Amino acid sequence: METNAKKPTLFSGIKPSGTLTLGSYLGAISNWTRYIDDYNSILCIVDLHTITVRIPPAELRRNSLTQLAYYIACGIDPEKCVLFIQSHVPAHAELAWVLDCYTMFGELSRMTQFKDKSAKNADNINAGLFTYPVLMAADILLYNTDIVPVGDDQRQHVEICRDIATRFNNICGETFRLPTAVLPKVAARVMSLSDPTSKMSKSETGDQSGCIFLTDSKDDIVRKFRRAVTDSEASVYYDEENKKGISNLMSIYSSITGSSFDQIANDFAGKGYGDFKLAVAEAVCDRLMPIQEKANALLSDKAYLEQVYSEGAARASALARRTLDKVYRKVGFVAKPRMGRMPEAGK
Ligand code: ATP
Ligand code: LTN
Fold this sequence. Notes:
2 domains, 3-stranded parallel beta sheet, 13 helices, Rossmann fold, 52% helix, mainly alpha, binds L-tryptophanamide, Tyrosyl-Transfer RNA Synthetase, 7% strand, binds adenosine-5'-triphosphate
């Protein structure tokens, strides 16, 4: 894809830390597809972020390729965007270092994701986990991004990205464009089916009955929705305070079918929760089954996937380099010599 100077730019990414969930599909990916024609879209598999939590190398490699296949199967057409793997573009790590020096300890200490992840990984509170938002800021700022479509939990990270960019611009002169987080109108925070007070998340350990994975079988999806925790009132209407379970199911259903909450309440008036849960399960299966089929076909064509991420890395590197060169100039680094043949050792 050639970038078009008239179009604004979109950047987003997801960690290949496990199997994609219905939460990241409705909260992020399905929103990407909505914007892809009108924005220069730069979409990433953020593997550098993933090693802030321990993960076996073979699993990370497998997840990254599977995630690429799923992006494409969900409608992210590589012809219409730049699709790449973060570690293939060194400018991300390079800009992150510079931005580390323009980010305050105090502001990173306030990040809720850092607090959550530190509590869950008490034996591995590493520096990468702490500076995670700075790398995310580098991802976004490298491409002069206008919008960042993410779920609700990432709003704070886009805010700190703006703060870091503003600070850098004030100290070094106008360099970065300030990005805006774009959240979906419904399903910006899909909750666990087994505990509607906590976010549906792929790395929740233990009980996975509350999480729908994009790879789940039809039977598993139906079973998980049937067992979804609800209240005892047996009447379908939206009330996020008092009916968290049903409101979550309504958000999922609304996001997939496009029906409003009022319409859903009307359609299911007088019917029990059983009927509604089944309808939600069916809507989810109808959406996910064709995606699975397409992803499986793509996964059997490794050469194609390699071609996609190779072209993506080349395009992303060229775009990112321009910003990084500008930043290096602004902070006072001596211009890089052109790298020709390296002299042999000892000469
Ligand atoms: P992990 O458990 O490894 O932290 P996760 O399942 O929370 O991962 P991420 O990879 O952090 O998912 O998120 C990918 C994208 O999907 C982000 O934009 C995030 O805001 C969005 N997202 C993730 N989970 C949900 C959810 N339950 N509802 C809405 N959006 C979500
Ligand atoms: N932190 C995000 C993933 C992420 C991201 C980004 C999202 C890393 N870099 C840049 C948007 C833009 C998360 O989903 N946990």
